[in-house]
Amino acid sequence: MNAPLVATLGLARHYRTGRGVLRALDGVDLSIDRGETLGLVGESGSGKSTLGRTLVGLQAPTHGSVLFDGADTAGLRGDALRALRRRRQLVFQDPSGALNPRMTLGATLREHLRVQGWTRAAVRERVPDVLEQAGLPAAFAGRYPHEISGGQRQRAVIARAISTDPDFIVADEPVSALDVSTRAQIINLLRGLQRARGLTMLFISHDLSVVAHTCRHVAVMYLGRIVEVAPREVLFATPRHPYTAALLSAVPVPDPVRERQRGRILLVGETPDPSSPPSGCRFHPRCPLASGICAQVDPPMRSLAPGHTAACHHSDKVGSVEAVAQAARGLTALG
Ligand SMILES: Nc1ncnc2c1ncn2[C@@H]1O[C@H](COP(=O)(O)OP(=O)(O)OP(=O)(O)O)[C@@H](O)[C@H]1O
Ligand code: SF4
Ligand SMILES: [Mg+2]
User: Are 47 and 227 in contact (CB under 8 A)?
Assistant: First the structure.
């Protein structure tokens, strides 16, 4: 049995804003098994990056906990905390913003390793090595970020992340700032590194088709909560949360007849304000399957099959994109 490397319990991260308390994460229970890549999808503002940053310790939880290798990370100090920093790393969305424009790639890598406690001699050996592992010539140590392409910059960011030999990487939209031809190369690089090093990974994307190529398991996030988790094939074939079905309905399929049959679920209204989430199920104002109970009672996350959980009172009525698309058409017809 594979034990989780990373897990959260009732994880919340709130921000105080002019409009009150913004609940970017509001009770997230999640676990990622060692060596697995979990895809995390959801609309803009659903809390994906906040979850990623909290999992690597760049920000502290407001409530709840992050467990790493079975230990609550909040209790770690001194050497244990330094070791943990080395073991979990973040790859940012925008490689331009993630690299200091005034430092060569070599200087960036050296600084990163020195901060993590590596000796000068070990750093000297390590830098060319990690550049090559990330698919860059060792000579690129002397280049500045503006002297290389966007894809090469993202490789440099990945080199920095793997330089400390981490166990866990959060890749936050690692290809969304890149052109289409470079995307596949960076995804292949990440997959290759993941396999070669047995890395555990959280792969964040708002694009389900990118996640489908990259991750064996997928978690779907809506307004600060995880609403469904399943193995990729199961999620694509039999989604059990209407929000997942809506996201899937926007993924293009090669067969136009099949795409027409499947139908498109257009969600009504904007994503609600995370400062005042709707009562009961937070998806109810936009959900084609909502009934009376949905506005009153917050649906708990329920286990539906091994590795498949969803938080919906009516998950038995979902089961496919078509079922939810049909309900959505019914609503439109009634309206
Ligand atoms: N430092 C902050 N202060 C206040 N609010 C914040 C802060 N960081 C994030 N938020 C808010 O928290 C919510 C979740 O943001 P987050 O960036 O995690 O979403 P996301 O799912 O990553 O979105 P995107 O797909 O656009 O990257 C949003 O409403 C955002 O405005
Ligand atoms: S609980 Fe109700 S509103 Fe929420 S997703 Fe399920 S059917 Fe829709
Ligand atoms: Mg984000």
Answer: no
Q: What structural domains does the chain harbor?
A: 4-215 (3.40.50.300), 238-334 (no CATH)
Distance CA 289, CA 158 (A): 42
Q: Whose CA is nearest to atom 10 of ligand 1?
A: 24
Q: How far does the centroid of ligand 1 lie from the alpha carbon of residue 47, in Å?
A: 6
**Rounded to whole angstroms, how far apart are CA atoms 173 and 175?**
6
With a 6 Å cutoff on the Cβ, whether 54 touches ligand 1 is no
Angstrom distances, CA of residue 247 to CA of 208, 221, 282:
8, 11, 16
Order of strands, sheet of 20-33, starting from the edge strand that comes earlier in the sequence: 20-33, 4-17, 63-68, 71-72
C-beta 299 within 6 A of ligand 2: yes
- Answer for the pair 301, 311: CB distance below 8 angstroms, yes or no: yes
Output the CA 36–ligand 2 centroid distance in Å: 29
Question: Judging by DSSP bridges, how do beta strands 37-41 and 71-72 pair with one another?
Answer: unpaired
User: Which protein residues have a CB closer than 5 Å to ligand 3 (ion)?
Assistant: 48-49
DSSP H or E segment with residue 258: helix 256-262
**pTM for this model (two decimals):** 0.94
The tens digit of pLDDT for each residue in 205-249 reads: 988 888 988 899 999 999 999 999 999 999 999 999 999 999 999
| CA of residue 243 to ligand 2 center, whole Å | 9
Tabulate helix, strand, coil % of the chain (nearest 5): 45, 20, 35
Residue 334, pLDDT > 50, answer: no
User: Does the C-beta of 47 come closer than 6 Å to ligand 1?
Assistant: yes
CA of 105 to the centre of ligand 1 (A): 29
